[in-house]
């Protein structure tokens, strides 16, 4: 294009086009852009940056939430939680052990239940939508209602003891209820967590299953692979990425979630179901007005670091799988 | 939204400013600390006890008739929500004029943080003369509380000796056994147990007669209940004041790891077979409800439990109440429970109606008003009731109040100066739960665990 033709084109668009927009117009346009983005930025600054900075700073202080001044303690809160304090160290250690069990059991069991369930639901032709909706109910039901319902199921006169008695399996009954025995309380709550985690995991697997090229399954069938062999050797490896996501999501929930533990047992009996998320909550809000908000904040940041490491490891694994 | 706000017409801005100014002037005019409370003033008050709400509202009506000052009472429950709301309101400057607080607890924490008025110069002797002498001074920072406030990690940091942050509203005690009268009779028990052994025998008899619902319920999801409501009164009766307090010391010769500690734990362990199944999973309200619904035959609570049972439909005529008894041959043969101020009334430091707030507090301290409040709330007032507590408060509450005592033979759960400042009764209760009802430790092992935990509190304090 020659210079003359360029000018001609520019001239042709000048009344409404870019060439006609002067510096004043551009400034106004910029200002409007900032104005539209400002509320979101402001909201993020207040709700995000401010609270994160506030929480982080608090982790180096001692405060009960009421006094006008914080007492700066440096790294003492972190040291206390890591064993420096005979008061705060042992409960955190016990809670960390319980959390570890939850982090191992919940993702594994969720995958173990949701993958076969998704495969079965994917192969069902009649009532498929109804069945999928039914299996999704635990996810859309209010969490608190679910936890209370499970409490009734687990109590000494609850459904599970009733069924065990009716089946002649009285030796398996728990006279103190499944949440009243320290040996069964944590596994019982893990079951509740898995029950609420399965719907989303199942949905992810269903999405993955539908993305698999039918030709691959056809080829496996032609090669003589049965239902079991096809799913084990073809479908399962193809869904490794989905499995990694399911595992990561549940690891995060297992690490930081504590609602079920708070509502169903409050960490009891004794400290049998105390987990790190609940310990953080206890230090913050259930410490009988002791100045432990800084400890709670420090524990929260330590949990965040662990979550970050898990996320990085997962990301690397996913990259390698691709 | 934003654009709309930015384009608010100027006349509207002016109107809003005028209204705000008018509101401020009105607030200044109606309050002001200096003069008396102006009729037309409205006070705001928060209580954390639902059972006190209507009783306070009734008292507020008589107060308004008398002074023209209205009081808006709001219940903020449960305790954790109340604390969170106070915390938020303190940060935003929205505290109510008056708060009901736990005496010698929240009031000191809030007061130490500067959220409450120091009432030491506002509560004269002719006001406190209305109260029972044993509780008249409660809410005041004594030397012991002041020393505790100086410890590292203290919950009451910032208080000064002699400050007063509340006046009593209700008194009472923990360690009251509630038993189902009909079921006791069914098991052949017609009198309230007088000794720990009698109590265990009664538990046994009722459990035998009613294996399904003959047990003892207690809200052990809050583990301190087993410790403070059952074991400590019994231990005090068994050992007497000094050896009891020594159990919480750092000296292995006399603390929980000692033979004294083991003896106490062994006696406490006698109730293990009689817990209501699953009581360790119940919170305090659920345990009370289990008793009210007949799922248990015994319940341990405080004087305040009676109102909750009544609210939940339990027939109060079907109740037998008695304090946790001492073991026979114990150091205190005639053990009783000393009353202490459970809740008090505090005035927020940000109130613009201090005079009206003080008038309201004094109104509630009037013996007639306090008695009516107690009847309405089924709770125990801090005022002198004389010898006719039964007539004033009704038979059940009256009997309970009459059984309260004072002096060396009375265990006072409100006195805690012998414990380390960082003491957390919930954690200590958890360790005790491993002994009973969970049976994961024997008496000796539990004693050592308790001594170790207390040792950690003492070392933290140093």
Briefly note the structural class of the backbone of chain A.
Answer: mainly alpha
Q: Report the strand count of chain A.
A: 2
**Mean of all residue-level pLDDT scores of chain A:** 87
How many domains, in number, for the residues of chain A? 2
Alpha carbon gyration radius of chain A: 28 Å
Q: What is the radius of gyration of chain B?
A: 24 Å
Q: pLDDT under 50 segments of chain A (min length 5)?
A: 1-17
Description:
The complex is a heterodimer of chains A (322) and B (462). Chain A is built from 14 helices and two strands. Chain A has a two-stranded antiparallel sheet. Chain A has helices spanning 3-13, 23-58, 76-84, 89-123, 128-140, 143-154, 159-166, 182-211, 214-222, 227-238, 240-256, 259-264, 276-285, 293-321; strands spanning 61-62, 71-72. Chain A is mostly helical and 322 residues long. Mean pLDDT of chain A is 87; it is low at 1-17. Chain A folds into two domains: 20-48; 76-321, MetI-like (MetI-like fold), CATH 1.10.3720. By secondary structure, chain B is of the alpha/beta class. Helix content of chain B is 45%, strand content 12%. Chain B has 20 helices and eleven strands. In chain B, the strands form three sheets. Chain B has a five-stranded mixed beta sheet. In chain B, strand 1 (42-47), helix 3 and strand 2 form a beta-alpha-beta unit. The longest helix of chain B is centred in the first third of the chain and has 21 residues, at 10-30. The model of chain B is unreliable at 1-35 (pLDDT under 50). The A-B interface holds A 35, 38-39, 62, 64-68, 85-87, 90-91, 151, 155-156, 175-177, 179-180, 182, 265-266, 268-271, 285-292 and B 1-2, 80, 83-84, 86-87, 90, 105-106, 109-110, 112-115, 153-155, 157-158, 220-223, 277-281, 283, 422, 424-427, 430-431, 433-434, 437-438, 440, 455-457, 459-460. Chain A: Keywords: Cell membrane, Membrane, Transmembrane, Transmembrane helix, Transport. Chain A: The chain crosses the membrane at residues 31-56, 100-121, 133-153, 188-212, 233-251, 293-313. Chain A: It is a multi-pass membrane protein.
């Amino acid at each position: 294009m020659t210079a003359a033709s360029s000018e001609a084109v520019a001239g042709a668009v000048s009344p409404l086009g870019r060439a006609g927009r002067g510096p004043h117009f551009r400034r106004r346009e910029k200002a409007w852009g900032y104005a539209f983005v400002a509320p979101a930025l402001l909201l993020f600054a207040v709700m995000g940056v401010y609270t994160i900075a506030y929480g982080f700073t608090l982790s180096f202080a001692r405060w009960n939430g009421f006094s006008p001044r914080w007492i700066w303690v440096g790294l003492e809160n972190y040291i206390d939680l890591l064993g420096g304090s005979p008061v705060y160290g042992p409960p955190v250690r016990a809670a960390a052990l319980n959390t570890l069990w939850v982090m191992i059991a919940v993702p594994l069991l969720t995958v173990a239940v949701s993958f076969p369930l998704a495969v079965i639901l994917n192969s069902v032709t009649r009532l498929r939508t109804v069945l999928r909706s039914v299996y999704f109910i635990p996810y859309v039901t209010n969490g608190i209602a679910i936890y209370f319902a499970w409490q009734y199921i687990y109590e000494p006169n609850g459904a599970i003891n009733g069924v065990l008695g009716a089946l002649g399996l009285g030796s398996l009954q728990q006279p103190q209820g499944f949440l009243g025995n320290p040996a069964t309380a944590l596994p019982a709550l893990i079951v509740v967590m898995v029950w609420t985690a399965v719907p989303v995991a199942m949905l992810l697997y269903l999405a993955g299953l539908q993305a698999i090229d039918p030709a691959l399954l056809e080829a496996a069938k032609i090669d003589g692979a049965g239902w079991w062999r096809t799913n084990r050797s073809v479908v399962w490896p193809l869904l490794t990425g989905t499995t990694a996501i399911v595992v990561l999501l549940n690891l995060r929930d297992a690490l930081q979630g504590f609602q079920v533990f708070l509502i169903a047992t409050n960490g009891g009996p004794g400290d049998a179901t105390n987990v790190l998320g609940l310990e953080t909550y206890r230090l913050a809000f259930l410490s009988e007005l002791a100045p432990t908000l800084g400890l709670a904040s420090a524990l929260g940041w330590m949990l965040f670091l662990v979550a970050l490491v898990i996320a990085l490891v997962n990301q690397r694994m996913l990259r390698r799988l691709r | 939204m934003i654009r709309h706000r930015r384009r608010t017409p100027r006349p509207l801005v002016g109107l809003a400013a005028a209204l705000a100014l008018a509101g401020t002037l009105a607030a200044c005019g109606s309050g002001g600390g200096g003069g008396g409370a102006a009729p037309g003033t409205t006070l705001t008050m928060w209580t954390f006890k639902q059972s006190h709400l209507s009783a306070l509202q009734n008292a507020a009506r008589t107060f308004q008739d008398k002074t023209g000052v209205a009081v808006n009472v709001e219940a903020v429950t449960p305790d954790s929500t109340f604390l969170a709301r106070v915390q938020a309101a303190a940060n935003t400057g929205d505290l109510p004029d008056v708060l009901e607080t736990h005496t010698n607890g929240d009031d000191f924490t809030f007061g130490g943080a500067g959220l409450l008025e120091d009432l030491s110069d506002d509560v004269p002797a002719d006001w406190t003369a209305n109260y029972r002498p044993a509780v008249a001074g409660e809410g005041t920072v004594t030397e012991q509380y002041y020393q505790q406030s100086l410890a590292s990690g203290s919950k009451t940091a910032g208080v000064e000796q002699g400050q007063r942050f509340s006046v009593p509203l209700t008194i009472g005690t923990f360690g009251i056994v509630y038993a189902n009268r009909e079921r006791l009779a069914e098991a052949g028990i017609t009198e309230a147990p007088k000794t720990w052994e009698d109590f265990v025998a009664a538990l046994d008899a009722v459990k035998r007669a009613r294996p399904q619902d003959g047990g003892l319920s207690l809200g052990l999801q809050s583990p301190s209940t087993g410790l403070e409501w059952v074991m400590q009164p019994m231990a005090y009766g068994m050992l007497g004041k000094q050896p009891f307090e020594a159990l919480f010391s750092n000296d292995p010769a006399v603390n929980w790891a000692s033979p004294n500690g083991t003896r106490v734990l062994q006696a406490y362990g006698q109730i293990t077979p009689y817990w209501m199944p699953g009581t360790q999973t119940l919170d305090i309200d659920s345990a009370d409800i289990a008793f009210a619904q007949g799922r248990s035959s015994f319940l341990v609570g405080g004087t305040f439990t009676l109102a909750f049972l009544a609210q939940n439909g339990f027939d109060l005529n079907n109740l037998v109440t008695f304090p946790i008894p001492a073991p026979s041959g114990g150091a205190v043969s005639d053990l009783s429970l000393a009353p202490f101020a459970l809740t008090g009334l505090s005035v927020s430091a940000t109130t613009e109606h201090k005079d009206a707030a003080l008038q309201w507090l004094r109104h509630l301290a009037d013996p007639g008003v306090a008695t009516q409040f107690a009847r309405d709330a089924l709770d125990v007032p801090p005022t002198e009731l004389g010898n006719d507590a039964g007539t004033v408060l009704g038979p059940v509450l009256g009997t309970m109040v009459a059984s309260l005592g004072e002096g060396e033979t009375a265990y006072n759960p409100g006195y805690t100066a012998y414990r380390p400042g960082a003491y957390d009764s919930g954690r200590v209760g958890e360790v005790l739960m491993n002994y009973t009802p969970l049976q994961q430790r024997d008496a000796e092992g539990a004693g050592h665990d308790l001594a170790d935990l207390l040792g950690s509190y003492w070392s933290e304090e140093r």
